[in-house]
Amino acid sequence: MPLSRWTSKHRTTLGRKRKDDPQNKSYRTPPKPESYYTSTKGQCRWCGNVITKEDGTINMRKSWHEQCVDEYMIIYHTREARKHVYKRDKGECNYCGKNCGRRRWDLDHIRPLWEQKGVKEKDLDWSYWSLDNLQTLCRKCHKEKTKTDTANARKSKKVIYKRIEKFK
Ligand SMILES: [Zn+2]
Ligand SMILES: [Zn+2]
Q1: b/e 13-36 (16+ beta carbons within 10 angstroms → b)
Q2: Which ligand is nearest to the CA of 139?
Q3: What's the gap in Å between 94 CA and the centre of ligand 2?
Q4: Which of 43, 73, 87, 158 is the most exposed place for a label (fewest CB within 10 A)?
Q5: Closest ligand by atom to 72 CA
Q6: Which ligand has the minimum distance to the alpha carbon of residue 50?
Q7: 8 A C-beta contact, residue 63 and residue 45
Q8: Which of 115, 113, 112, 89 is nearest to 102 (CA)?
Q9: Nearest to 141, CA basis, from 90, 106, 101
Q10: What global pTM score does this model have?
Q11: CA 61: distance to chain centroid?
């Protein structure tokens, strides 16, 4: 997505306090890094590193690296994640190969996110939210997978299976 359009959309969150962020409450989205809540210009809100211009000086007009925007969006904005996955999978179900077209497919986390539930922030496995852990599934296969995942959750005596059932 063009960085300019996106930056203006997110200006409202610049400098917001971490504890006010509603997204931090669900295990399905990992807490954002401290740097996200900075209001210092010229520092990336995702990786926390300085953003430099071509001549090596700090770019005080920017708050994101271009590649960091993509990483961020894939984690926190489902629509953006779907765009990336569609570009890669072309709407083809990863289980049965059915072509679902542009919209009629589900975005699935290969290793289910509940495995990260209750994990301390410093121990979180961020690869759970990466493009590599996302796949295209048709509705039918997704249903089947959710069933299996839920059964596995039960087997491993994770109490959260109740919550998963609620999401069905
Ligand atoms: Zn960055
Ligand atoms: Zn399928």
Answers
A1: eeeeeeeeeeeeeebebbebbebb
A2: 2
A3: 7
A4: 87
A5: 1
A6: 1
A7: yes
A8: 89
A9: 106
A10: 0.76
A11: 26
Residues, Cβ < 5 Å to ion ligand 1: 44, 46-47, 65, 68
Write down the pLDDT at residue 97. Answer: 97
Residues with CB in 5 Å of ion ligand 2: 93, 95-96, 98, 138, 141
pLDDT at 44 over 60: yes
Tokens of residue 153, six digits: 């959750």
The encoded tokens of residue 85 equal 């996955």
Residue 106, H or E segment: strand 106-109
* pLDDT, average across residues 98-108: 96
Task: Answer with the residue of higher pLDDT: 40 or 88.
Answer: 88
Token pair, residue 92, equals 């083809």
Comparing 122 with 157, the larger pLDDT belongs to 122
Count CB atoms within 10 A of the CB of residue 109. Answer: 19
